[in-house]
Amino acid sequence: MSYVVRWVDPDGVERSESFAKRGRYDQPGTAEYYKHQLETRMARGMYVDPDLAKVLLKVEVDKWIRRARTETTRYQRQNFANNLGDLASMAIGAIRPSDIRDWLDHLRLGRPWCQGRALGENSVALQFQFLFTVLNIAAEDGVIVANPCRKVERPSRPDAEKSPAELLTVEQIRSLIRHSNRQTGCMMLLTAQTGLRPSEVAGLRVCDVDFLRRKIFVVQQANHFRGKAPTARLKTPRSKRTVPLPAEAHRELSAFLATVERGRSDLLFYTKAGRPWSADGMGQRFREIAAKAGAPRGFTWHDLRHFYASALIAKGASVKTVQARLGHASANVTLQVYTHLWPDHDSHTISAIDDIFHPNRDNPRGVPENSEVDFDDRREEDGSATAI
What we know:
Elements: E1 3-8, E2 14-19, H1 31-43, H2 50-53, H3 57-66, H4 71-81, H5 97-109, H6 121-140, H7 170-178, H8 182-194, H9 198-202, E3 209-210, E4 215-218, E5 221-222, E6 231-232, E7 241-244, H10 247-257, H11 279-293, H12 302-314, H13 319-326, H14 331-338, H15 345-357
Antiparallel strand pairs: 1-2, 3-4, 4-7, 5-6
Helix pairs in contact: 3-4, 7-8, 7-11, 8-10, 8-12, 12-13, 13-14
């Protein structure tokens, strides 16, 4: 014997669903429970087509992968698809918060589908964000009623917020450059004084630098994939931007180009083998140099970009300015990483009162919005790349 729940959907089509048990309104998997849930959703205008909710999660993820704008994004999304585990074969409407928590535990403690290897907390947070995005799209499209990820505690990202103690110092950057060859030192200096992503530095061409007006036009990045074109589209539309080129970086870049043969359409930097740099290759080179320089463990090339952002903030730059310089997709991204570096309200209150009571004292002002990150002109005597 079976129990049938019948209803008419918003399009006027008669639908039905069969159950083995009648049950009660608070017993999942029974006819009465389904009827109660259905009536509640329809009354709230939250009806979803049951057939759509039966679509497997991996089908929706495949659609999401096909919408990727760049090779790098496609690669990241495909990697996410490979880490879905049991969620991949679940109906998207059947996924519950508890299923997501179990999945997160597998990612952290050991993935059965990957020889028991676990992921680091940053990678776990990224995988969760991808799942959140896919399920959010499904909710917006009416495939599911609500995103179950919203009821799961979001994994933290240890590297998402850099404390002042975790930032590179000027002295450490000087040391890194001293232990580099001229080209790598120039690349590091350029990153620290312009805030470009490693892949953006690797994708710079000679024609992307306006030496007269001291500007850099960020229009492409290095391709992550071998066998493909050496450059690719930027991470997001906001990544396309114009960045001021400080005097020291301008001077060192000019001096470097005077020692090599480059056409206007050539990349600025190539490896010793004559190949374009990749972000991975730059990361490996950074680790080698950091070891020689005795830098604390854990720093990466990306920390040069963090240094640039922190320098702007320390000099009074606004959220909007830092967002524009870094090419973040939104101010929320900027705030998520750097909000703790801006002076708090107490600091502003104290400063305001001090200014009123002591109007004639020396009071450092914030730099203008179009300011640059520049350092002193001290040079090394050994002829290596100029230290910052």
